[in-house]
Amino acid sequence: MGEPAGRPDAPGAGHVLGVDSGGSGLRIAVARADDPEARPLALRTSDEPVRTGPAGIDAEHLLSQLLPAAAELAREAGADGFTAGCVGAAGMATLGEELRTRLPGALATAFGVRRLALAADAVTAYAGALGQRPGAVVAAGTGMIALGTDLTPEGGWRRADGWGHLLGDCGGGAWIGRAGLEAALRAYDGRPGGSAALLARAEAVFGPVTGLPGALYPRPDRPAVLASFAPEVARCATGDDAVALGILRAAAGHVADAAAAVCPPGSGTTVACTGGLFAMGEPLLTPLRAALAERLPEARATLPAGSPLDGSLTIAAALSRDRLTLPVDRKLLQITRPAPG
Amino acid sequence: MGEPAGRPDAPGAGHVLGVDSGGSGLRIAVARADDPEARPLALRTSDEPVRTGPAGIDAEHLLSQLLPAAAELAREAGADGFTAGCVGAAGMATLGEELRTRLPGALATAFGVRRLALAADAVTAYAGALGQRPGAVVAAGTGMIALGTDLTPEGGWRRADGWGHLLGDCGGGAWIGRAGLEAALRAYDGRPGGSAALLARAEAVFGPVTGLPGALYPRPDRPAVLASFAPEVARCATGDDAVALGILRAAAGHVADAAAAVCPPGSGTTVACTGGLFAMGEPLLTPLRAALAERLPEARATLPAGSPLDGSLTIAAALSRDRLTLPVDRKLLQITRPAPG
């Protein structure tokens, strides 16, 4: 901040680096620092998710993929290093300690990065969906979290759910899939709340249901296994199965509850839903529109403008131009200003 | 069967061995084979649960505890070996392969056991609660399973739930505790369905709730951690917390649904609830009596006559006297007649 314009490291000069690290892999892109929309000039994706070890997200594993990809992207975009960067990662708030320690120095040394944002994936999802506008964003895939802000420093970020598959993530993919499998087993047992259609789909996907506990419990990725059944719930809802329709109506209610808990007050506030869950389409979106209209009658539901990777570039470009207005917060969005190595 | 009476290995002569192996340890007892009530003459308990390995329940680990304890019990009861035995174990249906292979020979060699029953813990719970009468038994602790039979060979066992904490066990300890923690986090987030009282108890037990995911997800015994919060839900219900009352009412409904799914038809059928969950007392038992009366108006709810260890002795004594009338079934109750070693 405050460097005179025109120097090579002046705010706004050059290019910025955006990173989105999640359960399905790593996405990296470059944008011009002076592009207000921070459109990606070039990008790389890796389908090897960054490992999490006993010390949290493995910084070495992230850097081993990030440094060579970022060097290629710099060449491709004609960039002489990066003035600023943003790394968004799933688990940043609770598992990001090693990233906070290692990344700023490593990126300063390799690319002259002078300002680096370390963001929870919910924050890059927010910035991708709404940019730097106030509002609320629900990010849902296997899990579900809602984040909102009125952009005032005292308001900060409001967060709801995102507690994981045993404590919450209500209405997310694992929640929907789990409810669908429970309904399948209720039908098998002859208990109330069962669905023969969901039982048929469960057997088609997993084989005889007596084998389901053995197929699920030993797996380390139980939430993903549960979430893999969510599209089958949508399929049964499309076929007018009452139990499946009820599950998706309840899921939509939970998602809208989380949005309402974080949405800043006032008319015309923007609410966006982003993430893989919503690819399920109308079986979920129809009850979700109804639930949002009921709980947030004054808000305006919009489509997300972009992805978490777009959000990461937006934050990096804003940081580079001294225009970051999203709330800064030790866990959700931390800014570091490393000295060059 | 068919051996002439009076020979030393005649049915009904001598003593029988009963074993109950579960998550909290191993219980072993001896009874006289000709005691129709199979009352324990002597017993041993070990608080070291039998290990489960990649090949299922570890037969070697079970035998290393069982053989010396059974030898002591034989001396104590003045028994010259055992004519029959029953080993009931949690996970017998799915993880009992090594026990099926190893136990019959080992117990024949050590104690002359000629008839051995290998039973799922739900079956020994049934036999402990109702003996060899037709009816339905709900066994609930961390998990929840219901088992019923009309004692006809074609009817066999009917089983409901018992699918584990992600797929069912609806109304069991982990289910109640999980629902209580979700309600605590709803209050923390400002989402509907929250309970300030449960939030206060969650913080008293686990510390600040932001640390709850980190305290729960890395644990291998997640269901037990969840179930450890169930008594706090009962405590809040006693204090008239509406959310806690609602959770226990729903749990009672699920337990009664499972009982109704397995209960043989007809008036006066006996239904018993057994297991540690019911030690919670009136906060659960009051809505449970109401739910059972609604779903099974013609059935008679009774207290369990005895424990799963009593059930194991009941099965062993019946087997010894050729009087076993409970349904035999490859997974739930298997009878082996080993040749002496």
UniProtKB/TrEMBL annotation, chains A, B:
PANTHER family: N-ACETYL-D-GLUCOSAMINE KINASE. This is ATPase BadF/BadG/BcrA/BcrD type domain-containing protein. Pfam families: BcrAD_BadFG (PF01869). Residues 17-299 form the ATPase BadF/BadG/BcrA/BcrD type domain. InterPro entries: ATPase_BadF, ATPase_NBD, Euk-type_GlcNAc_Kinase.
